[in-house]
Each structure stands twice: as structure tokens, then as C-alpha cells.
Design brief:
- By secondary structure, this protein is an alpha+beta fold.
- It has 2 domains: 153 residues, no CATH class; 98 residues, Tetratricopeptide repeat domain (Serine Threonine Protein Phosphatase 5, Tetratricopeptide repeat, Alpha Horseshoe).
- The protein has 6 helices and 10 strands.
- Helix 5 packs antiparallel against helix 6.
């Protein structure tokens, strides 16, 4: 008997784990799963939630009591996720995921973003993890049978979010710093392009082939990112071509740049010192 009970317990635990690991979108729910995504500038905002229906019930201060924290949906807590930093009601939210709650009242609702994103309903809601809260006046709206979230009034750096259910709408605005985001993206592309060009130059150096092509590649990298590391590669290419005057000159530039950035240039300095012993006599350039 004990053995059978043990087996049953193991089966139940295993089934519970499998069930818990299922994606919310793949589970049958009375309040179905939904998600909506909007790109604002280059930032992506996604809301994942479950949609309860009105079904003839009295909602406000009945099914959803006033003055109590509500998951603003059904089942799992509603989650907002942002690919970039955003600003809501004057407060910056870092890129990431946040659970979303509201406290409804007759004339004013409190909107809450909480750092504990993956939780069931509001049963483990912890106000100490709130990262943002503010108040919004509810608006009258046409009847919405199934709770929904939507984006509207889209601009290059902002969009209005609306939570709607029954005849109530709760709107607020998400802002993004599109200029800063585009600049970061552009700088990221430049860094990637510089790294790829430098890899080509490094390949020329390591394979002892096409040094002229390697110089062209490292010049492209330096145009995007004049780092001491890229200057050292250029100096080594000159040395491999036995152009020691250019190698020493570029090497000294690399050392100066490296020291300004706090890099350890000691081993490279030894390399440059060796090149200096190979410099031609004055008046002859090699």
C-alpha cells in the first residue's frame, strides 16, 4: 500500500511540474491568454495577460472590489516587458519585465509596476517590489466584453496604452527616448563593423598574407573606433612588411593611446623596442 501511494505521489508531482512548465498560451483557460506588442521608435513594448469576460456579471466593486490590488486580468499576473528603457508618468523603467497591477476605485485608480514579473494573480503581491505607482482617472468607454489592452496615439517616441473592460478604460502613456536609442544602436553597429574589419586585418597578420589588404581593413576599423588595440594591429602589420619606421611610429601612437585608456601595454612596448633596433640608418627609410 505504501509503495502504491509513493508511486501515485511521484506521478502527481511529475504531472504538476509538466503542467507548470507549459506555456500559458498552450493551456485551455476560461479566460484565454493574449498578448499585444507595439514598437515605439525602436523600443518594443509587449503586454501578456489573460482575458476574463463580463458574462452578464456586475464587475466594479462586485467581482472586482474597490480598494484592493487586482492583477488587471485573470490567472497569471499581467506582465509588461520592454526591450529598452521607457518613461511612464515621469519615472524611468529599465528594460525588462514587470508585473502589472491596479487598485480600482470609483473616481481614481492606482496603477502599479512591480519588479516580480512571474507570479500567479496578486496572491503573492509584495508592495516592497513596486518600482512605479501613480493614479489615473477612469474613463467611460463602449462596452468591452473581454478585457483587453491596446496601443493608440502612436508617435515616434510615445504611445498610449489602454486597459479596457466592461464600460471602463484606464489609459496612460509610455514614452521612449528614441534619439538616444537610435544613437546606441548606431554605435553598436559601428562597433560590430569595426570588430569585423579588425578580424580581417588580424587574419592577414596571422596567416602572413595580403598585408596590404590587412592595412586597408584595419584603417576601416580605426575610422570607426581609434582604439589602442587596433593601432597595435596596424603597427604589427607594418612590422610584418618590414616597414619598421611606420611600425615604430604607429606603435608609439598605440602605446600613448593605450596608457590614456588604462590598458596594460608593457608586452607591446617590448615589441616596439625590438622594432627600433631594426630601424635603418638615418636618411634611409625601410
Amino acid at each position: 500500500m505504501k509503495k502504491i501511494a509513493s508511486v501515485l505521489f511521484t506521478v502527481i508531482v511529475a504531472a504538476s511540474i509538466v503542467f507548470a512548465q507549459q506555456s500559458p498560451s498552450k493551456l485551455l483557460r476560461v479566460s484565454p491568454y493574449a498578448s499585444v506588442t507595439q514598437t515605439i521608435g525602436i523600443a518594443e513594448a509587449t503586454i501578456t495577460y489573460h482575458r476574463p469576460g463580463v458574462k452578464g456579471r456586475e464587475i466594479w466593486n462586485k467581482l472586482v472590489p474597490f480598494g484592493q490590488v487586482w492583477r488587471a486580468g485573470a490567472n497569471n499576473a499581467t506582465v509588461f516587458s520592454f526591450s529598452e528603457d521607457v518613461q511612464i508618468n515621469g519615472t524611468t523603467l529599465k528594460a525588462g519585465k514587470y508585473s502589472f497591477f491596479v487598485i480600482p476605485n470609483e473616481t481614481e485608480w492606482t496603477v502599479i509596476f512591480n519588479s516580480f514579473a512571474d507570479q500567479w494573480g496578486a496572491y503573492t503581491y509584495d508592495s516592497t517590489k513596486n518600482v512605479l505607482s501613480f493614479t489615473v482617472k477612469p474613463e467611460q468607454a463602449p462596452h468591452e466584453e473581454w478585457l483587453s489592452y491596446s496601443f493608440s496615439e502612436l508617435g515616434v517616441s510615445s504611445a498610449k496604452v489602454s486597459l479596457r473592460w466592461e464600460k471602463v478604460a484606464i489609459p496612460f502613456v509610455i514614452n521612449t527616448n528614441t534619439v538616444d536609442n537610435v544613437t546606441k544602436l548606431e554605435n553598436s553597429y559601428k562597433m560590430q563593423a569595426a570588430q569585423q574589419a579588425a578580424l580581417l586585418a588580424r587574419f592577414s597578420l596571422d596567416s602572413k598574407s595580403d598585408y596590404e589588404g590587412g592595412l586597408k581593413s584595419i584603417d576601416r576599423a580605426l575610422a570607426l573606433n581609434p582604439s589602442w588595440g587596433y593601432l597595435s594591429v596596424k603597427a604589427q602589420l607594418y612590422a610584418a612588411m618590414e616597414k619598421f619606421v611606420d611600425a615604430v611610429k604607429t606603435g608609439e601612437q598605440a602605446i600613448e593611446t593605450g596608457k590614456k585608456s588604462g590598458a596594460n601595454t608593457s608586452s607591446f612596448e617590448t615589441m616596439v623596442a625590438d622594432w627600433k633596433t631594426k630601424l635603418p640608418a638615418k636618411g634611409k627609410k625601410k
